[in-house]
Amino acid sequence: MPKIPLEDNFTDVLGKAQRGLKLSDQTLSARAGVSLADLTALKRGEIREPALRAVAQALRLGPDALVSLARKQWYPEQPVFPRGFAMFNTPHEGMGVNSYLVWDTRTRHAAAFDTGATAEPMLDTLRAEGLTLRYIFLTHSHDDHIADLARLAGETKAEVWSSELEPIDRPGARTFKENAHFHLGEIAIKTLLTSGHSPGQTSYYVTGLSWPLAIVGDSLFAGSMGGGLVSYEDQFRNNRQKLLCLPGDTVFACGHGPLTTLRQEKKYNPFFTR
User: Fold this and answer.
1) Do 136 and 228 fall within a single domain?
2) With left for phi above 0 and alpha for psi between -120 and 50, is residue 60 left, alpha or beta?
3) Which among 38, 65, 196, 220 could bridge 51 via Cys, Cβ 3.0 to 4.6 Å?
4) Distances (CA, A) of 192 to 38, 130, 162, 239, 241
């Protein structure tokens, strides 16, 4: 299987941080002590390392991690789940979007997380593994993450759940508060409100598999984080306080891009290495 590319390059990270901090080019240039010409070149994708390091500091980003991202020197090592976990990457309007399936190998009960552009690969896995889909958990309600919700819910009759802060307009859909708990046999699922990208953006902390797992939607990506469409500060703070404090071997299953791990993000994600 080919590598799933990183969701963001270094110019995306610069843009998210600058927009989030509400800094004009003139203000950022002055704070970083770089010329507008150098800043413009960076935002165009040119790697001017001294200027890039200075801008990183002004944007509260880790300079070493940002340079590594710019030079394409890092790609996350991919964790292996021998059983009970599947990842699906489907194309949606020119980008790849992820959805996930976890299941208890004894009861054969499963939970889906988002649908991606199409749920067909997930439905194929459910049939091939002889699984019963009990729950469909939504990280948030943006179109690329729930594009095939009607089909997945209709064919499986699974319960649809989302945050009370971002309810889904679908008959029978249910909502939860933060720190809700669900179970599938030996698998435990806990909800964490990691809002900022959207009002009810939720991460799901899953235990009982080979590794602790956090399905994080667009809260963060390998080497980056989701844009703070509602609140950049909330997204940044929630990521730090609710995701970066999980056990060190936690796997992050992101809404876009490859799987990553908490340890790798603490070392290579410019938002969290400073």
Assistant:
1) yes
2) left
3) 38
4) 40, 29, 11, 10, 11
Best CA proximity match to 186, nearest among 264, 108, 77 = 108
Query: Per residue of the chain (274 residues), what is the pLDDT tens digit?
Result: 579 999 999 999 999 999 999 999 999 999 999 999 999 999 999 999 999 999 999 999 999 999 999 999 999 999 999 999 999 999 988 889 999 999 999 999 999 999 999 999 999 999 999 999 999 999 999 999 999 999 999 999 999 999 999 999 999 999 999 999 999 999 999 999 999 999 999 999 999 999 999 999 999 999 999 999 999 999 999 999 999 999 999 999 999 999 999 999 999 999 999 7
* Number of domains into which the chain is organized: 2
Q: Is residue 209 part of a domain?
A: yes
- Token look-up 């994708």 returns 45
- 54 by Cβ neighbours in 10 Å (0-12 / 13-18 / 19+) ranks as buried
Q: Which of 257, 260, 222, 263 is nearest to 3 (CA)?
A: 257
Determine the structural domain holding residue 43 and report its residue range. 10-70
CATH code (residue 25): 1.10.260.40
Residue type, 124: D
Residues 140 and 250 in one domain: yes
Residue 243: which CATH number?
A: 3.60.15.10
Domain membership of residue 98 (yes or no) is yes
